[in-house]
Write a structure and sequence with these properties.
373 residues, alpha/beta, D-Maltodextrin-Binding Protein, domain 2, 2 domains, ten-stranded mixed β-sheet, 10 strands, globular
């Protein structure tokens, strides 16, 4: 399986100077100062952050003696940009969606790293060749697949149940309120696919004024029934409370509600927007060495796969899927729940971070104006 950049196993952006080589993981402490110096890692809160704490943050601290302090955010580069521009950098590592990694790298907001220093796969394959095409950047490490899917509460639909993306937009067949993330990302793509655009053509259509108009017309059809969400924890709660009859969501959040809370939710994979992100070091952090050490630890295949024992997000390295096993707390087989599992990819659209890097400002402005109308 590949990312959204065809078969080119190239970084999302090139031509930047490379930082000092990252040391091998065996050299757990680079200096005496590292044993007491903590780093701040910024994550997405909720069940995803809990998974990262168990699989990544705590093992890293145990191995290196470097404390990981965690802060939450809802994505984007605004706070990173503000810190870098004022020279007051207090975040060290940020978990970003791929389009933001590319954009932040372009703008010099993130430190450049050398993928050739990342740990090899268990069979010795170099990290550069182990990452799926297009899923790494010159400023990123680690990496997971996550999907924008839609889900519903089975108790809301005791008889006829949604089964395809078109059902999300069909208020006549499935009346009731919908939950959607307050962003144009994924929503425009979902709208076009539901309007009949093949997955291979979505970004070409979206690159035309007529295509953008078409996406917003499709969203217009359900706008009056949409409840907008901003954090990943909201869709499962809205579904549980039956505030909405179905909602877009991050697949891992729905999975955890299913297996840990016993919620009667069903994920509809049809039309999923398969996305991926990476961890990145904020440019100018005074804790650069410790932050780079964390990035190296997070880029081990074993670290990436360990997250998949706590939430249904899969590694963006090829060797990672063979390490996916069962849910650490419930014993559930994790493979069928991964967004990159073959059976879930029948009608999947791979998010194109380069497209969003180019068009994000324009689409966000258009989306905000549309919301205000």
């Amino acid at each position: 399986m590949t990312g959204s950049h065809g078969d080119r196993n190239t970084p999302a952006r090139s031509g930047r100077n490379v930082l000092l080589a990252l040391l091998p993981p065996a050299l757990a402490i680079w200096s005496a100062g590292c044993t007491t110096e903590g780093i701040t890692v910024v994550s997405w809160g909720g069940s995803y952050e809990e998974a990262c704490s168990k699989a990544l943050f705590e093992p890293f601290s145990a191995e290196t003696g470097i404390e990981v302090l965690v802060e939450d955010f809802n994505g984007g580069l605004a706070q990173v940009r503000a810190q870098v521009e004022t020279g007051n950098v207090y975040w060290d590592v940020v978990d970003l969606e791929m389009a933001d990694v590319v954009k932040g790298c372009d703008e010099g907001l993130l430190e450049v790293v050398d993928i050739d220093e990342f740990p090899s796969a268990p069979d010795g394959t170099a990290a550069r060749d182990d990452y799926f095409a297009g899923t790494y950047s010159e400023c990123g490490g680690g990496g997971l697949y996550a999907s924008a899917i839609f889900a519903y509460n089975r108790e809301t639909f005791p008889n006829k149940q949604p089964s395809k993306l078109e059902d999300f937009f069909d208020l006549a067949k499935f009346p009731g309120r919908r939950g959607m993330r307050r962003t144009p990302v994924a929503n425009l793509e979902l709208a076009l696919m539901a309007d009949g655009v093949p997955t291979d053509d979505v970004y070409a259509v979206l690159s035309t004024p007529e295509g953008v108009d078409r996406a917003f017309r499709k969203l217009d059809a359900i706008k009056a029934e949409v409840v907008w969400w901003e954090t990943g924890a909201q869709p499962p709660q809205m579904l549980a409370d039956q505030e909405v009859v179905m909602s877009t969501a991050f697949n891992g959040r729905i999975f955890n509600a299913q297996v840990l809370e016993g919620q009667p939710f069903t994920i509809v994979w049809d039309g999923q927007v398969l996305d991926y992100g990476q961890l990145a070091v904020v440019a100018g952090t005074p804790r650069l060495e410790a932050a780079k050490q964390f990035l190296l630890f997070a880029s081990r295949v074993e670290s990436m796969a360990a997250i998949g024992r706590y939430i249904a997000y899969s590694p963006t390295r090829r060797s990672g899927m063979s390490l996916i096993s069962t849910h650490a707390e419930t014993g559930v087989d994790m493979r069928p729940h991964m967004p990159s599992a073959p059976e879930n990819l029948a009608r999947a659209l791979r998010n194109d971070p380069d497209w969003w890097t180019t068009h994000a400002d324009e689409m966000t402005e258009r989306f905000s104006a549309w919301l205000a109308r």
